[in-house]
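step=encode ok
step=design start
structure_in=
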């Protein structure tokens, strides 16, 4: 009961929470379109509630198919005083009955219940969302991790939470290999954490995930950026022969060149540049090493040929394979090999 009373007295200062650190409260709103992060947030709350009250009664409702009165019935104190956990998903499709009942409940939640609301985005139910926020209850914002820097931070945090080490270049390699889907990236982290007996390095990531299309694309880009034309072309041809699409390969080339161009024109230490550009410091340091191989003319020429290849592999050319091979050749010959 004391824990529940503490939840009831939370102040608006606690409203901002992340999926990694959210704690149970009388009402918790898990918003945003990233389903994986939303699921992780709800799993965390459920685990903490069960840890404090093993006999908790868990009820799951859907706001879109909700029947009037169900919320009040499920949060009502039981005969034996067990704590209640009510998880409601689909708030983005909530019906009018749920909206009415939820607004009434938010005004006076039960002390021995935890209500977790999952809203995947949109304007439906805005009045309820505003009421939860105005009450100072925890709000978790689960947005997609679109930037590589965000995915790098995610991987780093996963290993830190497990008290395991991963080398910076291994983090980058893992994001390149399986970073397209956050759930896959998290599963890869879990696999490496479970299997590794020492710090995870790039070689281990390559062993597990080097065959992925994304990983192969960045292998091509790394070789081309290093001025190693034969390796870049042989890796490219092997990738294409095994079914790789030219589009992500060109995207990997463009990503490398963008980082190089940003760092080439920046002034200051690697940490200062990283803060200015929103990049990881180790990526800045890598780009600073790579840029020494390049002349301004070579960098401009490579960016131009990559932009042309991007258009060609997306439909402007009948021979997208030639387009990406040409881009790789120009980039590799523009860079001075180490």
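sequence_out=
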């Amino acid at each position: 009961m004391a824990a529940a009373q503490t939840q009831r007295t939370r102040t608006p200062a606690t409203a901002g929470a992340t999926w990694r650190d959210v704690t149970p409260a009388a009402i918790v709103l898990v918003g945003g379109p990233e389903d994986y992060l939303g699921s992780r947030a709800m799993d965390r709350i459920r685990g903490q509630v069960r840890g404090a009250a093993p006999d908790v009664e868990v009820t799951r409702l859907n706001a879109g198919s909700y029947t009037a009165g169900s919320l009040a019935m499920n949060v009502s104190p039981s005969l034996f005083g067990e704590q209640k956990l009510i998880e409601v998903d689909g708030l983005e499709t909530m019906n009018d009955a749920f909206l009415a009942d939820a607004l009434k409940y938010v005004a006076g939640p039960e002390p021995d219940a935890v209500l977790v609301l999952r809203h995947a985005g949109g304007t439906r139910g805005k009045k309820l969302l505003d009421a939860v926020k105005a009450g100072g209850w925890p709000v978790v914002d689960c947005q997609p991790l679109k930037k590589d820097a965000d995915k790098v931070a995610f991987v780093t945090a996963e290993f830190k939470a497990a008290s395991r080490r991963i080398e910076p270049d291994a983090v980058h390699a893992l994001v390149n290999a399986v970073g397209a889907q956050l759930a896959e990236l998290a599963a890869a982290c879990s696999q490496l954490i479970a299997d590794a007996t020492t710090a995870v390095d790039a070689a281990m990531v390559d062993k597990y995930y080097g065959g992925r299309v994304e990983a192969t694309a960045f292998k091509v880009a790394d070789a081309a950026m290093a001025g190693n034309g034969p390796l870049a072309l042989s890796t490219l041809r092997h990738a294409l022969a095994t079914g790789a699409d030219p589009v992500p390969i060109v995207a990997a080339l463009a990503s490398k060149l963008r980082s190089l161009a940003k760092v080439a024109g920046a002034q200051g230490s690697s940490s200062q540049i990283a803060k200015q550009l929103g990049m990881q410091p180790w990526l800045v340091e890598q780009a600073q090493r790579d840029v020494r191989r390049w002349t301004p003319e070579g960098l401009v020429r490579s960016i131009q040929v990559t932009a042309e290849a991007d258009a060609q592999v997306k439909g402007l050319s009948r021979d997208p394979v030639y387009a990406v091979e040409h881009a790789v050749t120009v980039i590799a010959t523009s860079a001075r090999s180490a």
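step=design ok
step=annotate ok -> The longest strand covers residues 113-119.
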